[in-house]
Amino acid sequence: MLTAEEKSSVTALFGKVNVDVVGAEALGRLLVVYPWTQRFFEHFGDLSTADAVMGNPQVKAHGKKVLESFSEGLKHLDDLKGAFAKLSELHCDKLHVDPENFRLLGNVLVVVLARRFGGEFTPELQASFQKVVTGVANALAHRYH
Amino acid sequence: MVHFTAEEKAAITGLWGKVNVEEAGGEALGRLLVVYPWTQRFFDSFGNLSSASAIMGNPKVKAHGKKVLTSFGEAIKNLDNLKGAFAKLSELHCDKLHVDPENFRLLGNVIVIILATHFSREFTPDVQAAWQKLVSGVATALAHKYH
Q1: Does A114 lie at the interface with B, CB-CB under 8 angstroms?
Q2: How far apart are CA B140 and CA B79, in angstroms?
Q3: Do A124 and B56 touch (CB under 8 A)?
Q4: What is the average pLDDT value for chain B, to the nearest integer?
Q5: What was the pLDDT predicted at A100?
Q6: Where's the Globin domain (chain B) (predicted)?
Q7: How many CB atoms lie within 10 A of CB A4?
Q8: Do B120 and A115 touch (CB under 8 A)?
Q9: What is the pTM of this model?
Q10: Helix (H) or strand (E) holding B83
Q11: Average pLDDT, stretch B52-72?
Q12: What is the CATH superfamily name and number for domain A4-141?
C-alpha cells in the first residue's frame, strides 16, 4: 500500500506529533465539524459549543486514546486489518458506530496535521497520510457484519 | 438546501478575504492530482504530471486551478443560492466534461486542507465547520443538474 519512502516520511512526521494534544484536537474537531457524531458521546457532558467541546476533559482523554491506537496502527502498516481486528469488532458489536465516521475522523486528522505542520505538510505527505487514514478506516470497517 | 448562519457566513468571507486565489487555486488542483491520482485522467492534455513536483509546477495546472478557485469565490457571493450559482457549471461537468461528482467532494476536502496549512491560527474548529459545510454545499450544487 505504501512505498518504503512513504512509510518513512509518515513515521517521521508522526514522530513529531504530540499524541495527547493532536488526539484531543482531532476528536474535538470531529464533534464540532460533524455534529451528529456527538451522539456517541452524550455521556461526555457539555458539548454545547465549539469551545465547550474543545475544552471538554473527556473529549481530550478519549481523543488521546484514539490517537494512541492510531499510532500503534502506524507500526503495522503492512497489516492494518490484523492490527485493528479487535477494535473493528468492538466498534461494530458494542459501540454500533457507522464506519463512515472512521473516514470522517481520518479526514479531520489530516486537516489537523495540515494545520500544525503548514508547509511541511507537502502534497506527497498529504498523499501518504490520506492512504494511511483510508487504510485504517477500511481496517476498522473490516470486521463489520 | 444548505443554510448558513450569520456567524458561518462571516467565518467564510473573513478567511476568503485573505486567500491568494491564484496561488491557492494552483495548489488545490495540484494536490488533488497528487493525492488522488486517478483524477489526472481529466487532465491528460496538461502535459507532465509524472511526479508531485511536476504537477505542482505545471503551468496548466496552476492556470486551471486559479480558474476553478475563482469560480468557487463566486459561490461565496451567493451562499444563499449555491444551486442557482452553479447550475450552468453543473450541466457542463455532467454533459460535456463527464466528471464523477465524487471528485467535487475530494476537491472540497483538499481546499479545506490548504486553508488549514495556510491559516493555522484562524482555522479554528468553528471556521473549519463553516468551510466544510460550504465545500459540501458546493459539491452538492455541482452535482445537482446531473442526469
Answers
A1: yes
A2: 13
A3: no
A4: 95
A5: 94
A6: 3-147
A7: 7
A8: yes
A9: 0.94
A10: helix B82-85
A11: 96
A12: Globins (1.10.490.10)
Residue A107: left (phi > 0), alpha (psi -120 to 50), or beta? alpha
First to last CA, chain A: 25
Shortest Cα–Cα distance, B32 to chain A (Å): 9
CB atoms within 10 A of CB B131: 23
B146 vs A115, residue with greater confidence: A115
> Which residues of chain B does A6 touch, with a Cβ-Cβ cutoff of 8 Å?
none
Q: Which CATH architecture has domain B6-143?
A: Orthogonal Bundle (1.10)
Residue ranges covered by each domain of chain A: 4-141
Do residue B116 and residue A111 have CB atoms under 8 angstroms apart? Answer: yes
Closest B-chain CA to A109: B113
Q: Report the Cα B26 to chain-centroid distance in Å.
A: 11
The pLDDT profile of chain A, 145 residues, written as one tens digit per residue, is 799 999 999 999 999 999 999 999 999 999 999 999 999 999 999 999 999 999 999 999 999 999 999 999 999 999 999 999 999 999 999 999 999 999 999 999 999 999 999 999 999 999 999 999 999 999 999 988 8
Any chain B CB within 8 A of the CB of A21?
A: no
Domain ranges, ordered by start, for chain B: 6-143
Subunit contact A121:B117, Cβ cutoff 8 A: yes
Q: Which residue of B has its CA nearest to A112?
A: B116
Q: Which one-letter DSSP state was computed for residue A35?
A: G
Question: For A44-76, how does the pLDDT look when each residue is reduced to its tens digit (9 = 90+)?
Answer: 999 999 999 999 999 999 999 999 999 999 999
Q: Measured over all CA atoms, what is the biggest interatomic distance in chain A, rounded to whole angstroms?
A: 44
**Burial status of residue A123 (CB atoms within 10 A of its CB: 0-12, 13-18, 19 or more):** buried
Check residue A74 and give its pLDDT: 93
Torsional class of A118: left (φ above 0), alpha (ψ -120 to 50), beta (otherwise): left
Q: B 93-112 residues with CB below 8 A of A?
A: 109, 112
